[in-house]
Amino acid sequence: MAVPARLNGNFIVQDDRGFRARVRVTAFDPDVSSNGNLISDAFTQVSTLGTALAAATNGKVVSTGFEWTFDLAQEPTTETGTYQLVQDKAILTFGDGTVLRNHLFVPAPKDAMFLTTTQDNLIVVNPASSIVTGLQSALNNYPSAGGGTLGSQFFGGQYTGKKSRRRRVLQGA
């Protein structure tokens, strides 16, 4: 089965006063699952584009990188399931085993992630939850900048609800 993806080339251009501008180029790949050299191909493409951008600007390209968005899905509908508000989040705090901490925000968290006693009232994250241990196990695959592993420690988490942002709409013209 084909796995479609977007590849974004991200560049930061800086002037001599320190002001920065971001340039993003978005490409589409209809199937990333069939390319065994995906990372090296993307690196080559983005590096070539960065060199061309450096030749086209009076600023200096100070940062070049890329990111993928893959396994693009359809918008959720009420026919395919119930979807809670993504403004509600569980904030989980992990450590790398050295000095660094990182936070993982889980939008629309499942109730099974939280302690269920009446005292906690679904606010405190249960460290023994299979959901939390699954996230921690997945984070253990990534090294941190501090020399540790991203998910080697779990310091806890809690639920937070946020109001959705009000959007301003211009009335009339």
Quick synopsis:
With 173 residues, the protein is α+β, with helices and mostly antiparallel strands.
What does this structure look like?
This protein is an alpha+beta fold and 173 residues long. It has two domains: 5-70, no CATH class; 89-160, no CATH class. It is 17% helix and 31% strand. The chain has two helices and six strands. The strands form two sheets. A three-stranded antiparallel sheet has the order 2-1-3, with helices on one face. It has a three-stranded antiparallel sheet with strand order 5-4-6, with no helix packed on it. β4 and β5 (101-107) form a beta hairpin. The radius of gyration is 21 Å and the shape is extended. The N and C termini lie far apart (48 Å). The model has no long low-confidence stretch (mean pLDDT 83).
* Oligomerization status of the protein chains: single chain
Q: Helical residue percent?
A: 10-25%
Number of domains: 2
The share of residues in extended strands comes to 25-35%
Mean pLDDT comes to 83
Class of secondary structure makeup? alpha+beta
For the secondary structure, the number of strands is 6
What shape does the CA trace take? extended
Order of helices and strands: EEHEEEHE
Which stretches of 5+ consecutive residues score pLDDT under 50? none
Overall radius of gyration: 21 Å
Characterize the main sheet.
3 strands, antiparallel
Beginning-to-end CA distance, first to last residue: 48 Å
Structure annotation, total helices:
2
Strand order of the largest sheet: 2-1-3
Chart the SSEs and their pairings.
Blueprint: E1 5-14, E2 20-29, H1 38-56, E3 60-70, E4 89-95, E5 101-107, H2 130-139, E6 153-160
Antiparallel strand pairs: 1-2, 1-3, 4-5, 4-6
